[in-house]
Specification:
By secondary structure, this protein is of the alpha/beta class. It has helices at residues 15-30, 52-63, 85-92, 108-115, 131-145, 163-172, 191-199, 233-239, 281-299; strands spanning 41-46, 67-71, 98-103, 120-125, 152-156, 178-182, 204-207, 219-222, 258-260. The chain has 2 domains: 10-129 and 288-299, 3-Layer(aba) Sandwich (Rossmann fold), CATH 3.40.50; 132-285, Rossmann fold, CATH 3.40.50. Helix content is 34%, strand content 15%. Helix 1 crosses helix 5 (131-145) and helix 5 (131-145) packs across helix 9. The model has no long low-confidence stretch (mean pLDDT 95). The chain binds phosphoric acid mono(formamide)ester. Phosphoric acid mono(formamide)ester is lined by residues 50-53, 124, 133, 262-264.
């Protein structure tokens, strides 16, 4: 029953498919109001909180002429009465043409895609993957750097639980990146992703020091410490404010440096960075609309 049009992990898309999505997104940025989804229904099932992902997917559907059903809080769905994910997906797939789902369990999107007769778009499954975020990150990187090849990318913060950085490593493997992983011991990049880099000849270095460590970077990708993933909240308290980027830390950085963050931010980027032309995180979130229009049009066959 597996539907090959589902987007569960960024590894579902080849390099050519990724580039095709980026081109398609550029077309939607030029004209975001094409009514190609008229008569289509997209369900957004958010078992975890979201602002950008849910609202940009819903805006994408509405601007393309389709309709949205769904929930933004699992407590208002029958999962709060004990209904299984299996039954929820079977039911919703009889109402809608595609499902966008965020779920706290790693592998939930894969499981849903195996039982669903309609495409599943993974909007984040636990600490695992967030492929639509990755595509908008690639779109933002390409737009600001003029290409995706041979870039120095510094990933900062919660590299253990941050699903956006995991997806980004896999996607960038097509484009000869060099990574710097900047994290304290408690939040280091998992071995699985370092092994992935080794196997794909992607150079990386690790450091716990933020100051001056990204002066060679083209992209500085900041992340939030993911409080909701910690078993031990005392450990969260120890690391939650480990890094804060301030405007004066950007003085010796490259002119083409752009700062990305999937948002929401908590304390990782001081607001004094917002007016620096190298800050790109709000435009990055806006790019999510065009990328999600491109994803929806691909999975629905337009
Ligand atoms: N970047 C991202 O996933 O943001 P939301 O949690 O607000 O959807």
């Amino acid at each position: 029953m597996r539907d090959t049009k589902s987007l569960v992990t960024i590894a579902d898309y080849s390099k050519d498919e990724i580039l095709e999505i980026l081109e398609s997104a550029a077309g939607f940025e030029a004209n975001p109001n094409r009514k190609i989804l008229q008569g289509k229904v997209v369900a957004t099932l958010f078992f975890e909180p979201s602002t950008r992902t849910r609202l940009s997917f819903e805006t994408a559907v509405v601007r393309l002429g389709g309709s949205v059903i769904g929930f933004s809080d699992a407590a208002t769905s029958s999962s709060s009465k004990g209904e299984s994910l299996n039954d929820t997906i079977r039911m919703v797939s009889s109402y809608a043409d595609a499902i966008v789902m965020r779920h706290p369990l790693e592998g939930a999107a894969r499981y849903a895609s195996e039982i669903s007769p309609i495409p599943i778009i993974n909007a984040g499954d636990g600490a695992n993957q967030h492929p639509s975020q990755t595509l908008l990150d690639l779109y933002s990187i390409r737009k600001t750097q003029g290409g995706l090849e041979n870039l120095n990318i510094s990933l900062v913060g919660d590299l253990k639980y941050g699903r956006t950085v995991h997806s980004l490593i896999i996607a960038m493997s097509h484009f000869k990146p060099r990574f710097k992983f900047i994290a304290p011991d408690e939040l280091k990049m998992p071995e699985e992703y370092k092994d992935f880099c080794r196997k794909n000849d992607i150079p990386f270095v690790e450091t716990a020091e933020l100051t001056d460590s990204f002066n060679d970077a083209d992209i500085l990708y900041m992340t939030r410490v993911q409080r909701e993933r910690f078993q031990d909240l005392m450990e969260y308290e120890r690391v939650k404010n480990i890094y804060t980027l301030h405007d004066n830390m950007l003085e010796n950085t490259k002119p083409n440096l752009r700062i990305l963050h999937p948002l929401p931010r908590v304390n990782e980027i001081n607001p004094d960075v917002d007016s620096n032309p190298k800050a790109y995180y709000f435009q990055q979130a806006q790019n999510g609309l065009y990328i999600r229009q491109a994803i929806l049009s691909k999975v629905l066959g337009y």
